[in-house]
Amino acid sequence: MSLTLLLGSIIAVIALVVIARMLGLGGGTIADEAEARHVAEAALPGFAADEAFVSKDGRAALVLGADGAALVKQHGTQPAVRRLARPVRAEPLPDGVRVDSGDRMFGPLSLQLAPEARDKLLTLL
Amino acid sequence: MALPDPVDLAIPGFVALILAEMLVARARNRRMYCPKDTMTSLGLGFGSTVAGLLAGGFIYALAEWVHGFRLFEIGWAWWAFALCFVLDDLAYYLFHRSAHRVRWFWASHVIHHSSQHYNLSTALRQTWTGFFSLAFLFRLPLFLLGFPPAMVFFCAGLNLVYQFWIHTEVIGRMPRWFEAVMNTPSHHRVHHAVNARYLDRNYAGVFIIWDRMFGTFEPERDEERPRYGIVTQLGSFNILWAAFHEWIGIARDMWRAPGWRNKLGYLIREPGWSHDGSRLTSARIRELATTNPSLRAERSNPEEDQDASAVWIASSLRSSR
After folding, report:
1. So what's the ipTM on this one?
2. Phi then psi for A83, rounded to 5 degrees?
3. Å from B49 to nearest chain A CA?
4. Could you point out which of A24, A79, B150, B183 has its C-alpha 20 to 30 Å from the C-alpha of B143?
5. Distance between CA B299 and CA B240 in Å, rounded?
6. Please, is B288 exposed, middle or buried when counting C-beta atoms within 10 Å of its C-beta (0-12, 13-18, 19+)?
């Protein structure tokens, strides 16, 4: 491989990413509680979803189950999920709850919730 | 004989086809592409090229050395190219199957599967650690048989170029005869899927006949759309994490595991194996899917427009595993 081809490849990579942004590709959120439950059950074999709490911005959700919980993260256009053991490590925020995934690269997630939903979730945790 | 590198020649075509697929995504379903995911895939592809350049000299020298012990004198006849291409594809099948069934090899190959998207940019999401994982060992028998190293590497390049176009959802099914013999977008979608039914299936590079022969073939079903990625999705676009996360996982597991037998297990057993049975292998995931009705597939419509695709994505997420 020549140096020209190598440099050309770098330029092509940058150009394609810029074009993808200009074309408006991507997007997607967790639509509602039902979708959050389905996402959790599909991603975690054996997980039976019960109650779900979806962040107002659709970027995160916490799904409670009989044997733990599922933390759902909207990762680009697709959801990524982590199984959490009870008790779930979470802390209240003024506008919701911050949940620790236990995975540094996955990160903690902040769920923006209505006050009643936040209080209910904190009680259930 | 000096032969060109087919991959180098194909790079402009790769770029043009990715651009064309992006335009299709714009028109049909914008969620087919995610710019951050594309950046990670293409960045990993570029890094893989650099890693290949660094290791290439050693691998070529090793190939020449092994060729010195060749069993047959195979010249540069046309049939030798054809035979080399077929046998190289068989070697690829064996490598690829091992790459999914032995965690040491998986740690290198997982990079290619770490995107939750299935588009042409995913094809370029290639390993940085192929040399370290000793993946080149699978091709050594070809040199020992007597195929000239330049011929083998040329055929391997053609094989890689062929595999580019099958990383797409834009193409549904090819003609029946083609689907019977060749690896196609449909067959390879199954390979990239994490649905229980599809896990660890369709290892073929060019010819799907290897999977049919060795019992690892699974057809794509219209009622069960694939969900892509790995069993535990990365949830991160960090390029270094994508490149090395499984190696780090192996090191952690080996460090913590009690006894040398268990430590070795984390190196050579299948991905998902654990000494205390606390994790899920693909076989265990399949078992759970057959016993848990909530994990079974539901029907979905593959001919979606953008609005319908949101419905499809939601319903496909409900599907099996």
Report:
1. 0.91
2. -85, 130
3. 9
4. B183
5. 37
6. middle
- Which residues in chain A have Cβ-Cβ distances shorter than 8 Å to B20? none
Among B173, B221, B217, B172, smallest CA distance to B195 is for: B221
Position of tokens 């975690």?
A44
CA angle (B14, B15, B18) in 5-degree steps: 85
Three-state helix/strand/coil letters over B99-112 = HHHCHHHHHHHHHH
Query: Quick check: B22 and A23 CB within 8 A?
Result: yes
Query: Cβ separation of B35 and A26 shorter than 8 Å?
Result: yes
Residue ranges of chain A whose CB lies within 8 Å of a chain B CB: 1-2, 5-6, 8-10, 12-13, 16-17, 19-21, 23-28, 31, 35, 38-39, 41-43, 45-46, 48, 73, 75-82, 101, 103, 105-107
Q: What is the pLDDT of residues A4-37, one digit of tens each?
A: 888 999 999 999 999 999 999 999 999 999 999 9
Contacts of B113 (CB under 8 A, 6+ apart): B192, B229, B230
**Nearest-CA distance B209 → chain A (Å):** 31
Per-residue DSSP letter, B210: H
Find where tokens 């190959």 sit.
B109
Angle, CA B229 vertex, CA B228 and CA B231 arms, to 5°: 110
The answer to whether residues B187 and B207 touch, using CB atoms and an 8 Å cutoff, is: no
| pLDDT (tens digit per residue) in B235-248 | 999 999 999 999 99
Classify strands A90-93 and A60-65 as parallel, antiparallel or unpaired.
Answer: unpaired
Judge contact between B263 and B275, C-beta under 8 A: no
Q: Which two three-digit tokens encode residue B110?
A: 């997982």
How far is B212 from B315, CA to CA, in rounded Å?
30
Query: Are A55 and A113 contacting, i.e. CB atoms less than 8 angstroms apart?
Result: yes
Cβ separation B35–A25 shorter than 8 A? yes
∠ at Cα B209 (B77, B269), nearest 5°? 110
Residues forming a β-bridge with A97: A92, A111
Record the pTM.
0.90
d(CA B321, CA B317): 10
